[in-house]
Amino acid sequence: MMRSKFLSLLIRAPSVCRSMSTATKLTTIDVNDKTGIATLTLNRSPINALNVELLQDLNESIKEIEDNKSRGLILTSSNDKVFSAGLDLNEMYRPDKDRARLLWIKLQDVWLALYSCDLPTAAAINGYAPAGGCLLATVCEYRVMLPKCRIGFNETQLGIVPPIFCMFNFLNVLPRRVAERSLSQGQMFTTEQALQIGLVDDVVSSKGEALDKCTKFIDTFAKVNPLARSLAKQQFRAADLQRFQTERAKDLESFLAFINHPQMQEGLGIYLNSLKKKQQLNAV
Ligand SMILES: CCCCC/C=C\C/C=C\C=C\CC(=O)SCCNC(=O)CCNC(=O)[C@H](O)C(C)(C)COP(=O)(O)OP(=O)(O)OC[C@H]1O[C@@H](n2cnc3c(N)ncnc32)[C@H](O)[C@@H]1OP(=O)(O)O
């Protein structure tokens, strides 16, 4: 209630860029008054690892942007090196059972909200985007990326089966053969490779340029009837959404069974440790 009152006040404010930031600030929303486009920024330090709270915040922000009838949604990160490091591995290693369940449900919700989003969506990928980071980028309709980054679903490299929504995203973006190979090999692509295979649509040298490109993409829909555009998008995605709903409960149980497997726990522990060791080595 307080929140919507606060929002309506902000909407009337005559600023060029109004902020609809959530209280926790794990994501922020800025709506450009000239273009009507909302920029949704991931803001969980240090690397936007997707934990329960960030996913919850993302869901709320997406809903807020849709409810406020923005003209489009641009997803980006406040970190200038990492778009998102994917799921927070600490939520999966020696997990709290209720939180692990919630984590996956919230991830499914975010995917669903973006995959079926009424608005045109674009990702300004201003840093590394492995696994869950790649999921957030490829669920959008357009991607632009900064040089010297990496993107991909590295799950199989970690002994993890990529869930079906990773497959849906890749099949929307890449030729089937390339999608299957890169998912089953857990390939991570450099920015240049990603451009070459069509995983990203453009490469630019700064975040500002990335946001401009995303705005231009969303502007290409300016003269298209919004309802017709939205229904056409839904039509393309309906079969995936139907399959997702059918398999959603099973997908959740598979995830829980998977992360609770002793071998998976051992692997996660080693992987987490190696990530920490990397930092220790850098400090030497
Ligand atoms: C058929 C049905 C199947 C159903 C489904 C079944 C199973 C699916 C199960 C799971 C799916 C998971 C999907 C995922 O998203 S897993 C996450 C994968 N992510 C990664 O592998 C990224 C690893 N991180 C990196 O490569 C680098 O950190 C990165 C390039 C992102 C950033 O590098 P940078 O040098 O800037 O920062 P670092 O020093 O490496 O990291 C800082 C700090 O953060 C810690 N950390 C890194 N990544 C994670 C993470 N994903 N989660 C938690 N913590 C992370 C890192 O250890 C450092 O910590 P500290 O040393 O400061 O304590």
Keywords:
284 residues; alpha/beta; 2-enoyl-CoA Hydratase, Chain A, domain 1; 7-stranded mixed beta sheet; 10 helices; 10 strands; globular; disordered N terminus; binds ligand LCMDX3IU
Short description:
The protein is 53% helix and 14% strand. It has 284 residues and is α/β, with parallel strands linked by helices. Pathway: Lipid metabolism; fatty acid beta-oxidation.
Structure, described:
The chain is an alpha/beta fold and 284 residues long. The protein has one domain (2-205, 225-283): 2-enoyl-CoA Hydratase, Chain A, domain 1. It is 53% helix and 14% strand. The protein contains ten helices and ten strands. The strands form two sheets. A seven-stranded mixed beta sheet has the order 1-2-3-4-5-7-10, with helices on both faces. α2 runs parallel beside α3 (97-115) and α5 (164-173) crosses α6 (176-185). The protein is globular. The structure holds ligand LCMDX3IU.
List the helices and strands and how they pair.
Elements: H1 2-12, E1 17-19, E2 27-32, E3 37-42, H2 52-67, E4 72-77, H3 97-115, E5 121-125, E6 129-130, H4 132-138, E7 142-145, E8 150-152, H5 164-173, H6 176-185, E9 188-190, H7 191-197, E10 202-203, H8 207-219, H9 226-260, H10 262-283
Parallel strand pairs: 3-4, 4-5, 5-7, 6-8, 7-10
Antiparallel strand pairs: 1-2, 2-3, 8-9
Helix pairs in contact: 2-3, 3-9, 5-6
Reported CATH architecture: Alpha-Beta Complex
Q: Numbering strands along the chain, what is their spatial order in the largest sheet?
A: 1-2-3-4-5-7-10
Count of individual beta strands: 10
Order of helices and strands: HEEEHEHEEHEEHHEHEHHH
Would you identify the regions where 5 or more consecutive residues have pLDDT less than 50? 1-16
Overall, the morphology is globular
